[in-house]
Amino acid sequence: MGKSVTFYDLQVSTGATISPFVWATKFAVRHKGLELDIVEGGFTGIMDRTGGKTERLPAIVDEGKWVLDSWGIVEYLDETYPDAPPLIPHESVATMLKALDAWFWGAAVGPWMHCYCADYRDVCFERDKDYVTRSRALMLGGPLEDIQAGREDRLPAISAALEPLRLALRSSDFLGGNAPNYADYRIIGSFLWLASLAQTPALAADDPLRPWYKRVCALYGGLGEHPGLFPIFGLEQREGDPDLFVREAGKGGIFKRNTGPASTSAETKMIGEPT
Ligand SMILES: N[C@@H](CCC(=O)N[C@@H](CS)C(=O)NCC(=O)O)C(=O)O
C-alpha cells in the first residue's frame, strides 16, 4: 500500500460519488500514485466533517496540509509530486482544458442537470434531500420535477451536441493522447456525475464515446466502476429525434487532410475551379 491522502468525498445513498469535481480529483490523486483515504459523507455536514475548513468539496489533507478546490488540488499535486506522472504535462493542456470544460458544461452538464435534477435529489441520502431540493430549486429557478419534465424531448439534442468530443476520441485512446491526463479525468468526472444519478440513459448504446468511457473508468482498479452507478448508455432514437451521434468518422476541417490534388479533386469537381 503506497502513501495515501485524506480525501473528503461527496456521496449519495448508493455510496457512489456524485460531484464531477470530486470524481475528477479522485482520478487525479490516483494518477499520482497516491491512495485515497476516504472520509465519507453527503451534502449536509461538510463544515462539521472538515472542522470548518470548507463548504465545498473536494478537499484533501496531505501530511497535515489542507488543500481545497479541484483545480487547486491538481496544481498542488503536480508541484508536490514532480516525479510522478504530470496531471498537466504542459501549460497548454491547462488552457485548452479550460476551454474544453467550459464548452462541455454549456453543452452537456447544464442541460443534463435540467433533465436529471429530480433524479439528483432522489438518489441523495434522506438527510440531504430537503437541502438539495431547496438549494437546487434556487439554482435552477423552479421546482425540480417541473424542470426535469419532458426530458425525453431534450436528451437527443444534448447527445448530438457532443460530436467534438467524439471526433477527438475516435482517433485517440485518451484526451491525453496514448495515456490519460487531467483532461480525461475532468471530462469523465462529469460523465460519472451523470452515472451517479441517471434513472434513464442519456447516450446511445453504440455511442463512439463508450470505449473511452470504459477505458477511463477501468483505470486504477476500476475507480469509475462503482456498483452504485447507473447506465448512461442506452438512449433510443425515436421518430423525429435528431441522430444521437454522427455515424461516419470526421470528414471536414482538421480531419480532411490535403495530400495534394488527388485528395481534393472530388470536392473541386463539386464546387468548381477558381477562375
Ligand atoms: N470550485 C470548486 C467547486 C466545488 C463544488 O462546487 N462542489 C460542490 C459539489 S459539485 C459542493 O461541494 N457542493 C456542496 C453543496 O452543494 O452544499 C472545485 O473545483 O472544487
Overview of this protein structure:
The structure is a single chain. It is built from 12 helices and 4 strands. The protein has a 4-stranded mixed β-sheet, covered by helices on one side. 46% of the residues lie in helices and 7% in strands. It folds into 2 domains: 4-80, Glutaredoxin (3-Layer(aba) Sandwich), CATH 3.40.30.10; 91-249, Glutathione S-transferase Yfyf (Class Pi), Chain A, domain 2 (Up-down Bundle), CATH 1.20.1050.10. The protein is an alpha+beta fold. The structure holds glutathione (GSH).
Give the C-alpha Rg: 21 Å
**CATH class category name of the largest domain:** Mainly Alpha
Bound molecules: glutathione
Distance between the termini: 70 Å
Reported by name, the CATH topology of the largest domain is Glutathione S-transferase Yfyf (Class Pi), Chain A, domain 2
**Regions with little confidence, pLDDT below 50 for 5+ residues:** none
- What string gives the helices and strands in order? EHEHEEHHHHHHHHHH
Mean pLDDT: 97
- Shape category: globular
- CATH architecture type of the largest domain: Up-down Bundle
The neighbouring-strand order within the major sheet is 2-1-3-4
Class from helix and strand fractions = alpha+beta
Q: What's the number of structural domains?
A: 2
Profile the largest sheet: 4 strands, mixed
Number of strands: 4
Share of residues in helices: 40-55%
